[in-house]
Structures are given as C-alpha cells and as structure tokens.
Amino acid sequence: MSLTYEKIGVKRDQLVEALRLGCEWLTDIAQVKTERLTIESDTKGHRHRYWRGAIRGEYSVANKTWDFFCPIWHTGQAVKALTLAHQVLKDKHLIEAANLGAEFILKESIRDPEDPDYGLILAYEDLGYGVNTSAILECLDGLINLSEETGREELWSAAIDALWWVADKAYIDGEGLFKDLYIPDERNFKPPPWGWVKGRPLLDDGVFLKGYRKTGEEAFRKIFFEVADRLLRDEYPPGNWLRYPPCNPKTGSIHPRHAYWWGYPMIMAYEETGEEKYLKCAIRAADWYVRAQRVDGGLFRGTYVDFNTLSFGHATSGIACATIMWLELTRILGDERYLEPIRKAVNFCMNMQFRRPEDPNLKGAILEKVLPPNGTDRSPYHIRDLGTIFFIQAAAKLILEIERPPR
Q1: Coil, strand, or helix at residue 401?
Q2: Rounded to the nearest 5°, which phi and psi values hold at 177?
Q3: How far is CA 48 from the centre of its chain?
Q4: For residue 252, which of 58, 304, 376, 382 is within the disulfide window of CB 3.0 to 4.6 Å?
Q5: Is-contact 133 84, C-beta < 8 A?
Q6: In Å, what is the CA distance from 74 to each residue of 30, 62, 78, 378?
Q7: Residue 176 in contact with residue 229, Cβ under 8 Å?
C-alpha cells in the first residue's frame, strides 16, 4: 500500500510550505543566537553557561514573553526535525541551524575524560539544578541524525558517551528501570519532584538499540530489551503506561506523548527480533492515539483512562507524534487502517500554524495549546516549541515516505 497526497487529503505544495514556515520559525525566531540570554526569561533557573543554539521553548502570546523548559532535549529534537526537513527542502540554512543546536548540547556536556561524570549531558528540566535521565535520552536522536546526515562523527561519539553514562550511573541492572533525577553538584540521584518511584522504563527514541547497532556493544542491546520487556509487563491501559510519571495514576491522566516515547520504539524491537509481541504493543499504542484523537484531528493534554478530556490545554505535539507512529506502522503493515487518523492529524496541525500573525514572534509556529480563561480578555494561546518541532518531523517523514522510490 503506497501513500499519496490524495489519500492524506493535502496538497504537496501546501504541506511543503507549512514545513518551510515551521523551520523558519525554529531557525530565525525560536533559536537563541547569543551566548547569554537577552530577551528571554529562565524561570526554572537551568544552569546553562552557554545558550547559543538553544531553542526557546515557551512563548506567552498574552504577555509576549519567552521562557524555557528543558532546553537540552527540546533542542535535540529540534536538531532532528531540521535534519529531516533538510532531506526534503535541501536548504543548507537548516543544517547550519541544526549544527548550532548540536553545539549547544555539546558545550553543555561533560567532555573531560578525567571527570567522574564524563559523558553526562546536563539536561536540566523540572529543577534547574537537576538532570533528568529521560531528557538526556531524548536529546540524543538529534545528534545521531545530524551525524549521519553530515558525517560529523564527533556527534555520534558524544551520544555513545552519554549512553555509557546513563548505563553506568542511572540504569538499575536487570530491572529495566532508570533512576531519573541526578544532581551534578552532589553526584547523586534524588527523588523527582512528582514523587518517588524506584525508576522509569525509558525506551525513548530507541537510542540504546541504535547505540548497539553503531558500536556492537551488547550492553546497550541488553538494556534496550530489558526495558522493552518491562514495558510489556507493566502496560496499562492497553498501549500506554499510567503507573509511571508523567502520567498520574491517581487521577487517571495520561501524558500526550507517553505512548510515543515508549510505544514507538517497540517497532524497532520488532524489526530487530521479528517477535510479534513488540509489534502488537506498538499497534496498541497507535490505537490508543486513534481513540484519543478528537473529531477535528487534535489531542488534549488532559486525556484520561476513559478517553474523557479536559476542555482546554490542547497538545498539538502529541498528535504530531502519533502521526509519526501511524506512518511507520502503515509502512510495516501495508494497510490503510491509519490513513484517516493521519489525514485528520496533518490537517489539524496545518490549521494550527500561524501564517499571517500580527505578532512577528508567531509566524510559522504551530499552536500547541489553548489556555482556559482567567477572567480577562488576554490571549489564550500558548506556544511550545514542541508543537512545531514534532510537526516538522511528522511532515518531513510523510513527504519522504510518499516520495520514496519504489523498492
């Protein structure tokens, strides 16, 4: 079964233009061009010494102010998005911006072999002084993609060093779990702010399996499959993992990108082993998104076990991530079960793009969420870079898949 623009219900030139505008927002508006912050706030107090290349993550349309939330992993995903977009648009400016983002990550990494934390990427997130293991893993695919696109082998080397740090310091051997909040000043892990769990089964982007394929290190493969099998045991509800943060088992609220981070790599596990149990899990995760998708193609951040939702707080990034999963499964399964969800999601994302805004900071951005009213007439729009980042990834992958030469 071959994908076409007609089946997705979008014209190629409109999709390419949306992709181009999204990239221009990332490279020309959202990316920091100075070593120190100037117009931005950093309310989390991320302890970065060097900011050039980072992506501004949060923009309040009402206040016209910029802020950050975990710039390391957001920038890593932006690097991945720009690298994929370059394969479509062939614009060297995209690779230049991707290289700038990668330099930010490298400069905020410990590269001294004599340092006990050699390889650690300082992925500060919820607490400005604490590194989240998940955030380290979620930035690596950007380095990997850019390395393979440009031949910059030092980027792959930094990713491998980070994997070794996580494997040696954060992984709970044999349990498929990672300790999650590391305090570099103390060289110690602490309970994360959302409450203590022993650890989380992080499979994000399948980077340990990619590291194994690059190096042949069996330790990386072992970790990947211990985590995958832990996820199979702990799966609930079908296609998701309510018991682990950032989901909330007390309220039944499920994070909008959870099924993507942990369900999508199950496709890689299936392709590595041929074992149907992994493919079936990926399908359940993809089907969870089908049920969570709203009639107009969107998704709410506050989606619950029964698929009820809040009235505000959309998560366009979540439905873009779902699109990436649906595209990959369409390729593998060779049927059309996900065509309608893809069609609705792509058109929803494109409708969320600011093409003719009065505020120049918005041009090309994908609206991530609509906030509830607060008793005033302030704008309810809130921009997160993730809406644009994951739309770019999804749009580029869709174009590349449609235009892939026949095998």
Answers
A1: helix
A2: -130, 150
A3: 21
A4: 304
A5: no
A6: 11, 23, 6, 27
A7: yes
